């Protein structure tokens, strides 16, 4: 009986192909869950113009938006706590375990918002329940960012780590875009009265249902080799004290490189929809369309820039964002104040988003590459969440405060200054693509 002798080269090629398929399946699975998480998070911002009167006492539009923006910011207060708790959980129990836990909390928060009666029915209990829901979602997102950024970066492989990890922001933006697309669809098929009365609840019900599907998907993800190696070793367990005493430089770096980038992202995307209505004077429908088109193009730019970082390094992209952000933020916002042409407004917003791509496309992998595996999820999540809470989560509230005080341009200078601070960090830090702490390929 003849025996078939397997060619060693063929065997190696088949093993490599199987490994690539495994990586791709895991990245797609992790990214899909990330999309739903961020859809649930951004639905709040996308539909705030409709549900703000439902949860808060009658008042002018700016006052109601201030209230909803304040609750949006409150959700960010829980993000560092979520980053701490679930960063520890993902470092100790596994990356996919952390991802499953985060989506469970997001589902619960969306259901609370969808089911809560209005202020006229239950009084102050309505905004109180809204705050509770956002606290739960903030806890979820705080853990989601660190777990997903770590998971995608560890699964990606050295040569294409920038490209594949950029899908963390592709799906983040996709979630935001899906929320806006749903808003546009509901605006097209429903009357304004129906949307104001009950239509705004639809996306929150959808988000809760999708979160259940994601939970099931995430339970079947493969674990990363980095975590398997940590579990098999005698490495010290992840902890807050270890983070700040053993890795103080990396922790400070994450906070400082995040500050300008996250503020710019929220200013150019989340707040921009309201800015176009409240300052530029566009209708809510036109503002939503501009936001949707520009964000779609922005999403497509992420893997292009991420792939470029694999070729030239991470630093050039971050420095490019810093320089352009300092030079053009004020002129872009000033021009948007006076334009009444949707095309010009769209081009200006797109210009701002092209600039911030230098940060968004690679920020996840840069942070993951700074920390060793046994503390990576916590190291990525906690300092990022702190900076995100201080600067990203308060962006809308600060902008509206400047507007209500009569000096809206102060917000433009604020964004410019924070980008400038991050630029200084970019200039002096090492390029993580050449000095990565992720050892497994």
Question: How would you concisely characterize the structure shown here?
Answer:
The protein has 441 residues and is mainly α. The protein is 81% helix and 0% strand. The chain contains 20 helices and no strands.
Layout of secondary structure:
Elements: H1 8-46, H2 48-55, H3 61-93, H4 95-115, H5 119-122, H6 125-156, H7 161-165, H8 167-189, H9 192-197, H10 202-218, H11 225-232, H12 240-246, H13 248-278, H14 284-312, H15 315-338, H16 342-360, H17 363-368, H18 376-392, H19 395-404, H20 409-428
Helix pairs in contact: 1-4, 1-6, 1-8, 1-10, 2-3, 3-4, 3-6, 3-18, 3-19, 4-6, 4-10, 6-18, 8-14, 13-14, 13-15, 13-16, 13-18, 13-20, 14-16, 15-16, 15-20
What report would you give on this structure?
- This protein is mostly helical and 441 residues long.
- It contains 20 helices and no strands.
- Helix 6 (125-156) packs across helix 18 (376-392) and helix 13 runs antiparallel to helix 20 (409-428).
- The radius of gyration is 22 Å and the shape is globular.
- The relative contact order is 0.15.
- The mean pLDDT is 88.
């Amino acid at each position: 009986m003849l025996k078939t002798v397997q060619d060693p080269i063929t065997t190696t090629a088949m093993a490599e192909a199987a490994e690539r398929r495994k990586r791709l399946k895991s990245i797609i699975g992790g990214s899909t869950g990330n999309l739903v998480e961020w859809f649930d998070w951004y639905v709040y911002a996308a539909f705030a113009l409709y549900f703000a009167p439902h949860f808060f006492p009658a008042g002018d539009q700016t006052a109601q938006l201030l209230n909803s923006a304040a609750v949006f910011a409150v959700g960010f207060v829980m993000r560092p706590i979520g980053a701490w708790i679930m960063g520890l959980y993902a470092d100790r129990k596994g990356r996919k375990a952390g991802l499953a836990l985060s989506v469970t909390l997001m589902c619960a928060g969306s259901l609370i918002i969808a089911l809560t009666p209005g202020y006229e029915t239950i009084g102050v209990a309505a905004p109180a329940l809204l705050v509770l829901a956002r606290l739960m979602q903030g806890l979820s997102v705080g853990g989601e960012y660190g777990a997903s950024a770590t998971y995608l970066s560890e699964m990606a492989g050295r040569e294409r780590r920038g490209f594949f990890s950029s899908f963390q922001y592709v799906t983040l933006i996709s979630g935001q875009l899906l929320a806006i697309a749903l808003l546009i669809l509901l605006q097209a098929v429903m009357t304004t009265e129906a949307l104001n009365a009950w239509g705004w609840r639809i996306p929150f019900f959808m988000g809760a249902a999708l979160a259940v599907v994601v939970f099931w998907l995430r339970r079947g993800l493969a674990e990363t080799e980095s975590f398997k190696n940590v579990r098999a070793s005698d490495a010290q367990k992840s902890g807050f004290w270890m983070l700040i005493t053993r890795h103080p430089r990396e922790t400070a770096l994450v906070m400082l490189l995040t500050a300008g980038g996250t503020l710019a992202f929220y200013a150019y995307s989340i707040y921009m929809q309201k800015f176009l209505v409240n300052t530029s004077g566009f209708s809510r429908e036109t503002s939503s369309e501009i936001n949707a088109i520009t964000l779609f193009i922005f999403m497509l730019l992420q893997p292009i820039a991420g792939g470029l970082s694999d070729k030239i390094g991470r630093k050039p992209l971050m420095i490019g964002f810093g320089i352009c952000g300092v030079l053009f933020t004020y002129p872009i916002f000033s021009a948007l104040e006076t334009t009444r042409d949707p095309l010009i407004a769209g081009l200006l917003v797109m210009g701002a988003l092209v600039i911030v791509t230098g940060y968004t496309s690679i920020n996840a992998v840069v942070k993951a590459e700074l920390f060793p595996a046994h503390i990576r999820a916590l190291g990525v999540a906690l300092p990022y969440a702190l900076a995100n809470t201080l600067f990203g989560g308060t962006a809308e509230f600060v902008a509206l405060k400047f507007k209500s005080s009569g000096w809206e341009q102060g917000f433009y200078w604020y964004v410019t200054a924070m980008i400038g601070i991050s630029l200084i960090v970019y200039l002096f830090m090492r390029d993580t693509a050449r000095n990565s702490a992720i050892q497994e390929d």
